[in-house]
Design goal:
The protein contains 10 helices and 11 strands. The chain is α/β, with parallel strands linked by helices and 341 residues long. The chain has a single domain, classed as Alpha-Beta Barrel (TIM Barrel). It is globular, with a radius of gyration of 19 Å.
Amino acid sequence: MPAVAPRRSLPIVGVPAPEAGSRIEPRTVRVSLTDRCDLACVYCRPSRTDGYFESRLDDDAWKTMVRALVRAGVTRVRVTGGEPLLHPRVSELVAFIADLGVEDLALTTNATRLEQLAGPLRRAGLRRLTVSLDSLSAERFWRITRGGRLERVLAGVEAARGEGFDELKTNTVVLRDENDDELESIVRWAWDRDIVPRFIEVMRVGEGAKLPADKLVGAREMHARLGHLLDDERGTRDPDRGPARYVRARHDPQRRVGFITGTTDTYCDTCDRMRVASDGTLRPCLATNDGVAARALAEAGDVDGVVQAIGEAWSLKPDGLTWKGCTEDSAADVSMRAIGG
C-alpha cells in the first residue's frame, strides 16, 4: 500500500503556498476506480497474485471525491484501474462524472470487457478511449500480458469503433526483442481503422524497473524505424492532453503516431496531473509514493475537506525543473497497477 504523508494544514488548490509562486496547478486527474486487473503485464505487476487493497472507495465516496476535484479546478478526468471495466458500475460512475460538465472525459482499458461495455460507456458520456495493445500476435500478447486473449481485445476495439467515440487510441509499451519489430504493423493496423497508435518507452516504475536496461527502446529509435512513414519533425503535444508527442504521417497529415517518453525525456516541468488511488489516496506524482489519505473525508461526504486534502497533496509535488520523474530512484517502489499508471 502506498506510503501516506501526514495530514498538514496547507492552502487549498487555487491559492498557492508562498513558496510555490506561479507553480502549475492540478487540472488533470487520473481516477483509479479499482486496483484489480485481469492481466499481469510484465512491465506492470509481478504476477496475478501480487495482492490488492483490502478495500476501496464505494460509489458515494467516489462521487464526493470527483465533486471535490472539479471544485478544486480539475477540468480533465481519465478513468483508469487496475482495469476500470472490472468495476461493476463503471458506466454509472462515468455518467456521474460526465454530468459534472468536465471539459474532457477519457478512459484507459485493456479492453478484455470492452465488447460488452463500449455501448454503455459511450451512452454514459465517455468521449475518448485508449486501449492497451502490446502486440498483434496472439502468442506474444499472451506472453506479455501473462494470459491475455488478443481476440477479446480486438473484438472490444471493433465494438468501440462502432460506437463513435470522439477519439480512439492505442498504447503499446515497446520492449526490445519482445514486440519492437511490430511498430510498423501496429501503425498500419491502427491507421486502417482510424485509430491513433501511440508507443510508450518502458518506464522504470515498479516492475518496469526490474526489467533489463536493454529492454528500453527510446522514442527517437522508434521514430527512426518508422521514418519512411512519418515526417522528420520532433512532434507536438495536443494542448492539455498529456505528455505524448504526435508526429504526422509523411503522406497524409490527417494520420499521426504518438510517442510517450518518460525515460529518455521527462516532462515534469509541465505536469498538471493528480492521481487518485482506489483506496482514496491523493497522489501528486507517478514516481513517488507520497500522497495524502482522503478516504475518510470522501466517505463522510466532506467535499470541502477533500478540496483541502487536494491542496495538501499538490504541495507534495516535486519541483519539475529539477525532478526527473520516472528516472528517479523512488519510482522503482511504486506499483503501476495500484495507481493506474
